[in-house]
Design brief:
This protein has helices at residues 3-8, 34-52, 73-86, 102-112, 136-145, 170-181, 199-208, 225-229, 253-268; strands at residues 13-19, 56-60, 94-97, 116-119, 125-127, 130-132, 152-156, 162-164, 185-188, 214-216, 234-237. It has 270 residues and is an alpha/beta fold. A hairpin with a 2-residue loop joins strand 5 (125-127) and strand 6 (130-132). Helix 3 (73-86) packs parallel to helix 4 and helix 6 (170-181) packs across helix 7 (199-208).
């Protein structure tokens, strides 16, 4: 039994994104509506996702654009407040992602009881956010120092809006990441949130590390989910669940239900 089955209750799991609005300190934070509005919009999306039947939810500061790689304390504090206020209403397993700061994601997980985090744990990149370095050895030691050793780590090996500084084949990246770090899952992405993940890329990663859980990280939708989930072990879904399938919109419960109904039929026929 994989940890997906043990913790999320199913194989081919769908982890739904609960994208938080801009937070205090972010350029687009709405000072007039304040944090109460952010909490209420998060509550609305949470309930829509749960009512729609998703397997798990991941909270992220998706609209803290442009992203930092050394996230400020006020961002983590705001995310902790939101999750804390919603805690009694969360009915499915949940994870967190503080974009793009692996240590802060673990801090938030430890504070809230999140079951998993998704982050860029390894590699050095040229990105839209500047040169992006990581220190996985220190990050994992931090995980153990704060008592978060049971938090599952989802390693994003194809970061959005970034590329390895050194030219490396994806098979090499996947194999060395698994050998050196023992990730709980690898996530493979498209260029940005909502962008389709290349099927050939998925296949190459799965062939390189067949015994590691592989998640499609972006771009899973009504037309391609069967193809994607026939290769991957699960998917992280955000944009598809929103009104009109647009990244900037809130969650549409009818779209969630329709999508999850199709996924459940697919899973039943495996």
């Amino acid at each position: 039994m994989t940890w997906l089955k043990e913790i999320l209750g199913t194989e081919k799991a769908i982890i739904a994104m609960c994208h938080l609005l801009p937070l205090p300190g972010d350029p687009y934070f709405n000072n007039e509506k304040g944090m109460d509005y952010v909490v209420e919009m998060a509550r609305k999306d949470l309930h829509a996702l749960q009512e729609g039947g998703v397997d798990a939810i991941m909270f992220s500061n998706e609209f803290s654009m442009p992203y930092l790689t050394d996230v400020k304390t006020e961002t983590v504090a705001a995310m902790a407040r939101i999750i804390g206020e919603l805690m009694s209403e969360i009915k499915v397993p949940f994870g967190v992602n503080v974009l793009w700061d692996a240590k802060k994601s673990l801090d938030l997980a430890a504070a809230t009881g999140a079951k998993f985090v998704r982050e860029i744990f390894t590699g050095v990149y040229a990105s839209d956010f500047g040169t992006w370095n990581t220190n996985v050895g220190e990050t994992i030691r931090h995980q153990h120092r704060i008592g978060a050793q049971n938090v599952k780590l989802l390693y994003n090996v194809v970061p959005e809006s970034a590329a390895y500084l050194a030219e490396r084949e994806i098979e090499s990246i996947a194999a060395s990441t698994v050998f050196n770090n023992r990730p709980d899952a690898l996530c493979v992405s498209g260029l940005t949130a909502g962008a389709k993940t290349d099927v050939q890329l998925l296949m190459r990663v799965k062939e390189a590390v067949p015994n590691t859980i592989l998640l499609v990280n972006t771009g899973v939708n009504f037309t391609n989910f069967k193809e994607q989930l026939s290769i991957a072990d699960g998917a992280v879904v955000g944009t598809t669940f929103k009104y009109d399938g647009k990244f900037e919109n809130h969650v549409d419960v009818d779209r969630v239900k329709k999508f999850m109904d199709k996924v459940k039929v697919f899973r039943d026929n495996l």
